[in-house]
């Protein structure tokens, strides 16, 4: 009897946490209108409905709501990653093609195991397919986790939850076994599922309320108003910019790590590490700047991009390439009403190069 009460308590606790997560996601979506939050809110609503269906023994609804939970979760992750990450290089959409054969092979394995709980039960195929999608959602969140630690932990837990869901048939077989010790294993499975779902809820709340996720959402005060376009500034002026824009969501490509904490910073280096970009990868820098300016404009914020090491870029790409590169960035700034600031030490350039740069930024 005590174990039954404990199981009921775990179920209710899981529902309570899921409802709280749903509330936080809805509130954050209504406040900031971030598209991914709409789908994640829906995902947790379906999770709550799935839990209720599971507790009441409604297999058809378990199948439906599990499918909607996994579908909206991965859709929200892909929407956010497409808008804020390097979708082309970090995610391989073609891998979705492995889902049908993976589902078929795993299904055949379960049938051959001849477990007490039948694979032909109405909800099993949908639940297993949902488990595969949870795995894919986890890998998408892990890719986002290269820049957001909460997303990394959420990705790990989502992958673990996907494995847990894939073992649904095994778990349900335990509940149909007459041996007491195996029934206790079924209780342990319920506890594991609750821990995983609570962990996912915790890190999703931390993710969607983090500064990185709400990069353009926090209100900021700017002491100096910059005109849209591109501008060359001296190292001395750069120090002043860092003070005046220390609380502004600027995007910076730097060699010096002495930058405001609230800036989104990429360190230019030939060493491949997290948060670093090769100086020869101008295409990726261009992509990041373009996406940043467009996002800032959509949010009604004037985007500010800072490049403090054009000399370093010239070393690896040549002056002509960098001049064209900066011209493209200037166009992005002008079109999106943003500001491009390039820090130049005049002693590092010859007169011809300086003249071209000044003409370019005039």
TrEMBL record:
Keywords tagged on the record: Membrane, Transmembrane, Transmembrane helix
Residues passing through the membrane, by range: 6-30, 37-57, 63-81, 93-112, 124-144, 151-170, 182-205
Keyword set includes Ribosomal protein: no
Every DUF835 domain range: 236-361
Protein's name in the database: DUF835 domain-containing protein
Entry keyword annotation includes Transmembrane helix: yes
InterPro entries assigned: DUF835
Domain of life of the native organism: Archaea
